[in-house]
Amino acid sequence: MSKPFAAPWLEIRADMLRRVHSGEWPPGGHIPHEAALAVAYGCTRSTISRALRDLAEAGFLERRRKGGTRVAEKPVRRAVLDIPLIEQGIAQQGHAYGYRLHRAGLVPAPGFVAEVLEMAPGLPVLEVCALHLADGHPHQFEHRWIDPRTAAGVEHADFSRAGPDIWLLHHAPLSRLEMTLRALPAEGAAAAALGVAPGTPLLEAERRSFTLTAPIGLLRLLHHPSFCLKARL
Amino acid sequence: MSKPFAAPWLEIRADMLRRVHSGEWPPGGHIPHEAALAVAYGCTRSTISRALRDLAEAGFLERRRKGGTRVAEKPVRRAVLDIPLIEQGIAQQGHAYGYRLHRAGLVPAPGFVAEVLEMAPGLPVLEVCALHLADGHPHQFEHRWIDPRTAAGVEHADFSRAGPDIWLLHHAPLSRLEMTLRALPAEGAAAAALGVAPGTPLLEAERRSFTLTAPIGLLRLLHHPSFCLKARL
DNA sequence: CAGTGGTCTAGACCACTAG
DNA sequence: TAGTGGTCTAGACCACTGA
Which nucleotides of strand D are protein-proximal, with an atom < 7 A from a CB? Predict the structure, then answer.
């Protein structure tokens, strides 16, 4: 009759979470400092620190030097949203991936694009419109603007067979991402491409990607109504 | 002329990220093992491990015992979505928070609720409909079902002045969360409460919360069109 | 100022797994 | 089965910040 086994720091973490949830460590209250917990749990401070850091990163605890550790009073839950490559995301859901390029070419940067890319409006950017299909059905409509200053050579890349995702991965990998999610009515080319009536509610994910030092591009991804985005704590 | 200062593991992490992004460590390629890196960077394996673990958690690297560490070929970016309490989220955006309860009472669990809460359909659940306001304007419409088996006493709680968020925090704190994001057309009570025409695209966040062992409830949060959700890598 | 968490070292054992 | 990452110990120094 052996235990299912877990690493000590995981068991300690679980026990601490139990104390938080049982009210033994009430919201807003201080908990013992690391050294005391190390004695109580019979391990070193490093192990306690590992468990506490993990709980703090998850939003259950708040830690401050000298101030000690307290249970979060108004916890900010941090849900994790997986953002796979578009192709991979469709494949993961068990669908056959398809791709159709609508247009790709240099255009003067529209105002909102120039602002995101931190460039003067009218400078050339690569605009890409493409449709991603799952089992032959429209799934996501991609409208993207890429900064050729950061992604050097992107204007000569061939996006007729595969989207910019993979090319960018190898030529201008992102290190930072900002995403905004909205609900928008379908309109124009996107509505037509997705095969939905204008006005149909669509989930839009706008992604702004950056290298360590410069903006790479702006992506607006419109999802077919059958699609939903999942996150977990 | 001193450096801006950063902890060694952060500088090492940054340097490793640079090597990934510069192509020195190409996607899919193996990188040296921890012991070798420790020698190269002139620190202990613990410090290297800290940096590598962080990069792996962010999705840049993939690590396996015996298999070593390799640069992620098809990286799954993990964006982080902050989920504050509803009241706090509105306050953080600099708006005055307002709350209006529409109804709260026990109802037989609808099928889809019973499924999420892992209960027989028709068993009593507490249904709450409420509107959250920002500067007096409708902001989010909350439709929630709470399992009184998990959240004992919830049927006697007073939700006329504050939403279930805070009550639940103290009486049935969640430890796991699943969230689904969709775009839906406004309809019925929600459209009326939010003051938008039926059919207006709305961003819906459906949250299923759980304690360590049992489901707590199901929340459907419909956002006013002026609202968007932000995430970051 | 002094208490607390954040981090690093030096070393060790072991679980996991690719070859 | 041998190499690799995952974790733990015991100890240390110090940045930060509340009192």
Answer: 2-12, 15-18
Instruction: Yes or no: say if B99 and B90 are a contact pair by the CB < 8 Å rule.
Output: no
- In 3D, which of B177, B178, B179 has the Cα closest to residue B169? B177
Q: Exposed, middle or buried: residue A48 (CB in 10 Å: 0-12, 13-18, 19+)?
A: buried
Task: Judge whether residue B51 contacts strand D, using its CB and a 7 Å cut-off.
Answer: no
Q: What is the pLDDT of residues B96-155, one digit of tens each?
A: 899 999 999 999 999 999 998 888 888 999 999 999 999 989 999 999 999 999 888 898
Q: Between chains, do A20 and B173 touch, taking CB under 8 Å as contact?
A: yes
Each residue of A51-102: pLDDT tens digit? 999 999 888 999 999 999 999 887 767 777 877 778 877 887 788 999 999 9
Band (B1; pLDDT cuts 50, 70, 90)? very low
Close Cβ partners of A168 (under 8 Å, ≥ 6 residues apart): A146, A151, A154, A174, A209, A216, A217
In this prediction, what percent of chain B has a pLDDT beyond 90? Answer: 58
What residues of chain A lie within 8 A of the CB of B183, using their CB? 183-184, 201-204, 223, 225
CA distance B148 to B43: 54
Number of Cβ pairs < 8 A linking chain A and chain B: 160
Pairing of strands A137-146, A176-185: unpaired
User: Would you say the C-beta of B56 is within 7 Å of strand D?
Assistant: yes
| Residues in chain B within 8 Å Cβ distance of A185 | 200-201
> Where does residue B174 fall: left (phi above 0), alpha (psi -120 to 50 degrees), or beta otherwise?
beta
Q: Looking at chain B, how many residues does it have?
A: 233
* B11: nearest nucleotide, CA–C1' criterion: C7
* Alpha carbon distances (Å) from A88 to A82, A132, B60, B74, B127: 11, 11, 16, 8, 39
Rounded to the nearest angstrom, the gap between the alpha carbon of residue B34 and the centroid of all alpha carbons in its chain is 33
Higher pLDDT, B171 or A143: A143
pLDDT (0 to 100) of residue B22: 84
DSSP state of A121: T
User: What's the confidence (pLDDT) of residue A1?
Assistant: 37
The three-class DSSP label of residue A141 is strand
